[in-house]
Amino acid sequence: MSSTGENNGTPTNPMLSQGSRQMLDLINRLHSTGVQTDIDLPQIAVIGSQSAGKSSLIESISGITLPRAAGTCTRCPTECRLSHSNSPWQCVVSLRFITNERGQALGEARTELFGPTITDKAEVEGRIRRAQRAILNPSKPRSDFLEADEDVANPELSFSNNCVTLQISGPDIADLSFCDLPGLIASVSSSKGNSNDIALVENLVTAYIKKPSCIILLTVACETDFENQGAQTLAKRYDPEGKRTIGVLTKPDRIPTGEEVNWLSFIRNEREPLENNWYCVKQPSSSDLKQKITWQDARRREDEFFSMTAPWSELDTVHQKYLRTANLVERLSSVLSELIIKRLPQIQDELEKAIAETRLALNSLHKEPSNDPLNEIVTLLHIFTNDVAKHVEGVPHKAGLLQAIRPAQERFRRGIRVTAPKFRPYERVYVGHRHLLKPKFLSNEEGNDDDEGSGIDDSPGFIGSARSDDTDDDGDTDDNDDDLTGQGQGGIICIDEVLEMAQDARTRELPGNYPFVVQELYIKEFTNKWHLPSQSLVTTVHTLVMEHCKKLVTKHCNHFGQGTLEQRVKAIIQKHVNECLQRAEERIEWQLKLEERPFTLNSHYFSDYKDKFFAYYKGSRRKDEEGDLMELIHNFIKPKPMPVSEGPFASNNRLYREPSVPGPTGVGKVLAGLAEMGLTQVKAEDIPKLLPPDKMQPALHIMSDVRAYFQVAYKRFSDNICLAIDFELVRGVERNLITALYATLGINGPDGPRICKELAQESPHLADRRADLKGKLQRLLSASSELLLVSV
């Protein structure tokens, strides 16, 4: 053997061997975790077209025999992990699955031993053939293929991403790891394979060589034109600068005579130059294989070929190192080790980043179902009902339930308020000519609701100055409040109409007395209008309560299972709230029936309001009927300032002159006449009392009674309706809610565990996503642990 081939296939540098061994062992362990699907791990991928001599190259490197039956080709990746050992030769065959039988990626790579350890090289070929069958038929038990020698007529798959792993060790084995990929297909016959196989194999090869840390071992057969071999085109596509491609020329003994010089340009790196150069190897011929020569004989014959065959033997010493398998193996081992050392810090950083991202993705998923779904659902329902109780009691937040209800309650109060009877202390003929301003005592008491104008003149008397508008005693300027009550208000009620109604209602009463039925009819007129505002309020509150409860259901149940629990709880809540609504409506009807008969024990407030309204109506009527007299009296009692220039202390520059004394006015004359009659205690303010009584006085009393009762009744009714709705509908939601949930869901019965398990099931898509992420995290953590055990 020549000096370039004396190592017998094993590395000659012991330091290189030691470093390579350490790095290769680490990468092999990382590959075993399956993390290569997540992280770009350094590896060697052997690619080439079919019949490019890949199998022979693998045999020369590994020392084993690959299947060579007619029509046989590599149909799945074959990963070879070679390690030099002083122990006897052995081979362990395993199957590594990264996809399931449907071709879907597994969360974590699964490695299965395929048979016992092999110590006889003659058994390797058959074991590899059977292992490949098991890979191509993933749905069948692996044991079915371990002893069977017959080929499967119609395998489930023509090619697969899952791989056969060979762990080979022995005294004549180099420290090296590589992956033999299926050969690229130029065409498919109708009897074997299908048209999709070409693209399938190309995609499989591409998945490996596109990674930046993949060293491409490109095999090119010298018996075929270089340009016609698709593997070199694919390698150049993903490594255009040739930085990570190592070329291997095979079958140099089949080069037509005179064409050797065309291939020598590759060895000299003149044609298609690569950073790690081109190599050439000579593998056993067909006759050699028939003779079943040993691996050592094959290496010896290779050395003899390159040493004795021109033009290979004529190459200078510099290029001789690119010939023979041993030199190729040593270079591959060196390049792979250097790449591993370079990539290790980057791999650690990439692992840490990937672990953080995977954990973040896992945490973003809905909570994983527990092993005790019954207890989990019971806990969830209790937390939910406690949250409902907190919200119906009130939370200090703008978006709280009670805050949302309050505007509706205020609209309801105003809706009841505007049903006040619109009494006018003037006759119908004066409508549009006389005006009634809002009483000051109501303005102070209730504020200016519904755009109330004050309309109050602080001048003496019961009312202010007249205005062009007609602000009534219910606080607005509109005599028709249909927008708030939803019913025809019937317009204003004038005093003559009240008196006429009272007179028509008299039966056996004594003169001057009128039956109470008059007041009762007017009271019924406004209480009959309270139903619509009440119904509107309870409907609005029902809508708000329902929306709020559904939001709470979503808050607590949205991330549970497939959404079935959320949907069922919402349905239960809807039924429960509707039952609360029914009870609230019954309470409202009961309250309305109570108000059908006038009644109050609040005599103090009733009497106070009655006196105020009587004075208010009477004062307004007096101003309209006796306006001129009241103005004369007001002017008479108003103090009159005396000009200084006409007083007793006038300027000395002017002659002193006594002020002129005007003659007595009409008011003065009346007081003087009364004094003549001996009525000396009469004041100007008492003059209206001398006038004859108002014939409308009975109507004023009726109007005051009705209006005073309205003030007492509407406040009472407004409070009671709001309290009834709050008790039955708002706070009522909390009562018996947990009982309704348990009873309807059926989780307290014998089928409770089964029901809870069904409710807790998450969607298959989410479960698959969680499984993928957990598998990925496990791969990443396993790989990280392997790195921590290595000190470089």
Automatic annotation (TrEMBL):
Residue span, GED domain: 699-792
Keyword entries, A-Z: GTP-binding, Nucleotide-binding
Protein name in UniProt: Predicted protein
Record organism: Laccaria bicolor (strain S238N-H82 / ATCC MYA-4686) (Bicoloured deceiver)
Residue ranges, annotated region (Disordered): 442-489
The UniProt record lists the keyword Signal: no
GO CC, alphabetical: cytoplasm; membrane; microtubule
Entry's Gene Ontology molecular function annotations: GTP binding; GTPase activity; microtubule binding
Cross-referenced Gene3D superfamilies: Dynamin, middle domain, P-loop containing nucleotide triphosphate hydrolases
Nucleotide-binding among keywords: yes
UniProt cross-references to CDD domains, sorted A to Z: DLP_1
Bias kind Acidic residues: ranges: 446-455, 470-484
Domain Dynamin-type G: start-end pairs: 38-345
